[in-house]
Design goal:
Helices cover about 15% and strands about 35% of the residues. The chain has helices at about 80-90, 135-145; strands at about 35-40, 50, 55, 60, 70, 75-80, 90-100, 105-110, 125, 130-135.
Length: about 150
């Protein structure tokens, strides 16, 4: 005698509006931060990359009349953010191919993604991005109202 299959459990229902209770929300304690100059070098296959949730642009500014573009950007980073950036960049490589006209084009790949296989010529993305602490006195000068000459 064949046994009857157990009925499938009911599918979960999706809420019409996602709600969260105040006691479920936790605001972390603020961490100390320092100012860093971050960005991509001209050798990077992309003008902008995101590492550990932080944007590394080739240029910032330039969106308003008279506002010139600046290399990279300023970011206030904490120790935990720096650790996330380091962890993210340690898993990323640039893979290049050369076009008929001799130009190189590249993609950024994660070494821990499913199906990744290293290839000759892969380079660490870390060679193409930067994250440099801005000296506190430089940051103060940049943030302050410039002193008039007269």
């Amino acid at each position: 005698m064949a046994s009857a299959a157990a009925p499938a459990p009911p599918a979960p229902t999706l809420p019409g509006v996602l709600k969260i209770e105040p006691e479920e929300m936790k605001i972390p304690e603020p961490e100390a931060t320092e100012e860093y100059h971050v960005g991509t070098k001209p050798t990077c296959p992309f003008q902008n990359v995101t590492l550990g949730g932080v944007s590394f642009p080739r240029y910032s500014g330039g969106s308003a009349v008279g506002d010139s573009q600046r290399q990279g950007a300023r970011a206030r980073l904490s120790v935990s953010q720096l650790a996330r950036i380091k962890s993210a960049v340690s898993r990323k490589v640039c893979r290049w191919r050369t076009l008929r006209d001799g130009d190189r084009v590249g993609v950024v790949m994660n070494t821990d993604q499913l199906g990744f296989r290293p290839q000759v010529g892969d380079e660490w993305l870390a060679k193409h991005v930067y994250c440099v602490k801005i000296a506190p006195e430089v940051a103060r000068i940049m943030d302050a109202e410039p002193e008039a000459m007269a």
